[in-house]
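Go through the following before class.
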Amino acid sequence: MAFRAVFIRPSNRTGSAYLSKWGFLPAPLGLLALAGEIKRIKDSQVKIIDMEAESISLDDAIKMAVEYKPDLVGITLHATAAHNNAGYIARGIKKLKPDTVLVAGGHHATFLPEELINAGFDISVLGEGDETIYDIANSIIDGTGFDGINGIVYKSDSGIKRTKPRKLISDLDTLPLPPLELLDPSKYTFKVFGREDRVMCLETSRGCPYGCDFCSVTPTWGNTWRNKSNERIVQEMERARDAGYNWIFFTDDIFIVEPNVKHRNELFDMILEKRLNTSWIVQMRVDVTSRHPDLIEKAAKAGMSISFLGVESGSPEILKKMHKGEFTPQSVSAVRVLSTNGIVVIVGMMVGAPYERYKDLRTTVKFSRELARAGADALQFSIYTPLPGTRIFDEALDSKSLFTLDWDRYDVLTPVMKTRVGPVLDQIVQFYASYSFYIYKFMRGKLLGLQLSGKKKKLIDTGTKFIMEMMPDYLKSIAGFPRHLLETYDMYWKAKSNGFIGREGHEDISENSNKIIYDLGKKKNVYYMIKR
């Protein structure tokens, strides 16, 4: 009988801000990668259930999964805020089909594996799950048990067990091509820039060699940056284009790193030579961007249309404490380099670090205006959040700074910890900074009569029209802000009266959150594994 697997992307209870505000929902590359591994098994069958794309309820997701009669169900926790929904789905499937093996993956499952087991899963995958899911599937088929599979935590008759760490996948070109036929391209939209636009996620690399204190990416991918060959990247881009996707979101946490500048230059030449004619979105560091304007110019010609820059703060002192390794003048320069090449610039900033003072908040808001003048088009203002697996999560437990472990609130938009200025003020500043940026940008453009040109003008004009159509929804969001603020106020003051959350009573969480999850062998701190 054929082996059957279902992979699910659960929704968050707080919803997706990208989808609700911009109509942006890229295809779930992680699930496609896992499906590709399962399809290596002869006569296997795979189904993907994307709750966000299909707008289905939790109970409907359970029903759809069970009706497929799967041997394995994998649920990705692409965000910590998906924890509660993922657990609900797992328990629902197990109740209706007890013999199904339930597997959790993603960064949350990596650093809180026992939480996921206790929530209803049989296995929690640690780190990258490509080879792991293949091994799990074959163990189910052969009935050999899971003890010999490296890189997992699983439920056994004698309790919860952790196996040996798994080695990093050194050659990403060996991974199966994503089975794009499992998805309907019409579900993966980018409405802010075009009603008919379709977005596929692809990766050209994995990992990050930097050590920002708030980021879980670095430990999740093993503190190492690894890349695919240019030939493999172009092959995947061609397949995405032929499948009906005109946008590609490169999910690389850093698209260009210094040791790979020459390799990227060759990639852009190859894309131009093949005339792929796709637009793509990337995430960049400001230091690399500002140092290589010629490379950015070529990237723009090859299709780079939107770039996300993680600026984080306008305060040099805060950037230093975050271990960001960047400086504010580089941020201004990077924005200018991108904007002058017709690339839409989205800036990521945050407030709410526990060491942040009120004057730092003001500096960051003021700096966002400077970035607007330099050419930044959009701003994502988030709340500094101690996600499991990060240094700041461990520090928050040590200092008893958390006022909730309700994972629904760990959406990087909602305060969960006490800070120097207070979480309520942080939330007010985040709200004010987000909306006032666009008012400032709009008014300045009108007063000075600023005009865009070329591809960027078309994108911004389309985006402006979409935003005006969505204005009633934005106004509802604004009207609901006082309620969210009161929730933060109530939770904070209850914790202040009853005690904040520390390690005591949460030893399993603190123990798993800072474990090394990969076998790095004799090579320690290999920050780059460049494939030519």
User: Anything to note?
Assistant: The radius of gyration is 23 Å. The mean pLDDT is 91.
